[in-house]
Amino acid sequence: MKPALVVVGNGMAGMRTVEELLKIAPDAYDITVFGAEPHGNYNRILLSPVLSGEKTVDDIMLHRREWYRQHGITLFAGDPVVRIDRGNRTVHAASGLVVRYDRLLLATGSTPFIVPVPGHALEGVIGFRDLGDVDTMLAAASQGGQAVVIGGGLLGLEAASGLARRGMQVTVLHVTDSLMNQQLDRQAGALLKTALERKGIRILLGAQTAAIVGEERAQAVRLADGSEIAADLVVMAAGVRPNIGLARDARLYCERAIVVDDTMQTYDPRIYAVGECVQHRRATFGLVAPIWDQARVCAAHLAGAGHRRYVQQPTATRLKVTGVELFSAGDIVGGEGSEDLVLRDRGAGVYKRLVLSGGRLAGAVLYGDVQDGPWYFDLIQQRADVSSMRDTLLFGRALCAA
Fold first, then answer.
1. In what order do the strands lie in the sheet with 98-100?
2. pLDDT 10s per residue in the chain (402 long)?
3. Where are the alpha helices (DSSP H) in 212-287?
4. Which residues contact 347 (CB under 8 A, 6 or more apart)?
5. Where do the domains of the chain lie, and which CATH numbers do they carry?
6. Of 353, 356, 337, which is closest to residue 345 (Cα–Cα)?
7. At CB < 8 A and 24+ separation, what contacts does 57-63 make?
8. How far apart are CA 398 and CA 201, in angstroms?
9. I want to staple 220 with a disulfide (CB 3.0 to 4.6 A). Which of 68, 155, 161, 213 is the partner?
10. What is the pTM of this model?
């Protein structure tokens, strides 16, 4: 009899690990997958284009039910695991189903952070995390009206853009004084704000949400200064939190997330974890590239194929918010002894800032013209000496090569 692998979480991280495992050891396990949502695995990154109407739900499906059947995988969709019994090596689903495991893979992802202000549980207040949230947003948009998006990061701006394209009047509330402050510096954030305002999206910076007002449904958002903004829909996009309740209840060691070693094993050697629910050497993860690396390492270990180790790499973010191209990589803050190279072309709507440290490229922020982003990212990863190119580096690869 083959050993049993149970995967908790039918999202991108868990299924990518299963894909990698099937490549190297297709017959190693009897695989059972539990997912909270009632369908196959889809590309969560593409929820925004579904909201804006550029893509359909069919377009973003990665694995339909047929794929699971073809690979002999048992899928329980819409039946989330509610308890792990490590002593008996079983998982217990919401339906009462109990399944035994020899190896367990936790890929529980993250949940939207719902700002705990009065009124946060009213109807019409949602996160932006899954297809159910998109359905709610589309239903609200079909009625027109006003939407308030809390959070001016990537997800919040994508939600705002999609709702505006669907005909709603949209206000974005962001608590700091610059949009997308995790990925962009202040100048790029200011350019982005201007571009979004031209598209009819209202943006309030330094805006602290105090309460959501309404009897049964949300009707307005009240700010700390006492002002109110009417709202038929409130979208919370103020970040996510690793989804670790199941692991914590099973007494697996967690800090901010489920702590794993370089092989993606938890403190229980039969239990692995990948994706947004994990913490590796103090870091947590939200981008696809590191999660794909984790999937490869985890699959190799599940297959017993050698001793791969997960090594964190610098990450790059290429973003497209409402037709504005953005790229961010490496250390965009800089520190003592670092210097900035900056190019601004207001007419063309282009801004570039490179952070140099010790003759090497440490970080890059590009707005409007991002074609050299991957090249800059390679230079950051390789820790290449760029001293000889310093004077032409801002103008891109072609000129540096010449």
1. 81-85, 90-93, 98-100
2. 899 999 999 999 999 999 999 999 999 999 999 999 998 999 998 898 999 888 999 999 999 999 999 999 999 999 999 999 999 999 999 999 999 999 999 999 999 999 999 999 999 999 999 999 999 999 999 998 999 999 999 889 999 999 999 999 999 999 999 999 888 889 899 999 999 999 999 999 999 999 999 999 999 999 999 999 999 999 999 988 999 999 999 999 999 999 999 999 999 999 999 999 999 998 888 878 889 999 999 999 999 986 788 888 877 877 777 678 899 988 888 778 889 999 998 888 899 999 999 899 999 999 999 999 999 999 998 888 999 998 899 998 888 877
3. 245-249
4. none
5. 4-110+240-302 (3.50.50.60), 125-236 (3.50.50.60), 317-401 (3.30.390.30)
6. 353
7. 57/131, 62/12, 62/15, 63/15
8. 37
9. 213
10. 0.88
DSSP 167-184: T-EEEEEESSSSTTTTTS
80 in Cβ contact with 95 (< 8 Å): no
Tokens 């689903």 — which residue? 93
389: amino acid identity, one letter: M
Q: 135 CB contacts (<8 Å, ≥6 apart)?
A: none
Measured between alpha carbons, how far is 69 from 74 in angstroms, rounded to an integer? 7
- Lateral strand order in the sheet of 228-230: 209-213, 220-223, 228-230
- Residue 90 to residue 102: CA distance in whole angstroms: 9
